[in-house]
Amino acid sequence: MKSHRKELWFETKTRRAYINITPQVEAEIRASGIREGLVLVNAMHITASVFINDDESGLHGDFERWLEKLAPEKPYEQYAHNGYEDNADAHLKRQVMGREVVVAITEGRLDLGPWEQIFYGEFDGKRRKRVLVKIIGE
Ligand code: ZN
Questions:
Q1: Which residues pair with 18 in a beta bridge?
Q2: What gap in Å lies between CA 17 and CA 93, rounded to an integer?
Q3: 103-113 b/e with 16+ CB inside 10 Å = b?
Q4: Phi and psi of 13, rounded to 5°?
């Protein structure tokens, strides 16, 4: 069995952002040389997510409004976590949107459904943060 590990770095200009990272994950699969296996993609920070959904800007706006209803950023003092920080909402948004995805690799390619794309979801940005890509197989 072969394995391949890569960290992808992000620094968003806004506090919240959704970035389609499917091309970067595909590039790592090519670099790995693995034809049959699995790829794990996970956020390495507790205020960011990796998830799979549609690359459609209306839906991304819907995510933003829905998450702001569930866990509004402000007022900061509504959260017990915000004694030293202001990012309690980002922890809660990450919890809802998830930590990681696992995707099958078949014949050297991501074996995704027709509209599935892999996203990095940032909820407390404007600083350097990482996503781990781990590929195993043969
Ligand atoms: Zn925090």
A1: 121
A2: 12
A3: bebeeeebebe
A4: -80, -20
Which two structure tokens, joined as six digits, stand for 125? 């940005």
Closest CA to 130 of 23, 3, 14, 19: 19
Q: Is the pTM of this model over 0.90?
A: yes
CA of 48 to the centre of ligand 1 (A): 11
CA of 91 to the centre of ligand 1 (A): 6
* Cα 138 to middle of ligand 1, angstroms: 39
137, exposed or middle or buried, with CB in 10 Å at 0-12, 13-18, 19+? buried
Ligand 1 centre and the CA of 84: distance in Å?
Answer: 8
In tens, the pLDDT along 79-121 reads 999 999 999 999 999 999 999 999 999 999 999 999 999 999 9
**Interval between CA 53 and ligand 1 midpoint (Å):** 26
Distance from Cα 54 to the centre of ligand 1, integer Å: 28
Distance 94 CA to ligand 1 centre (A): 11
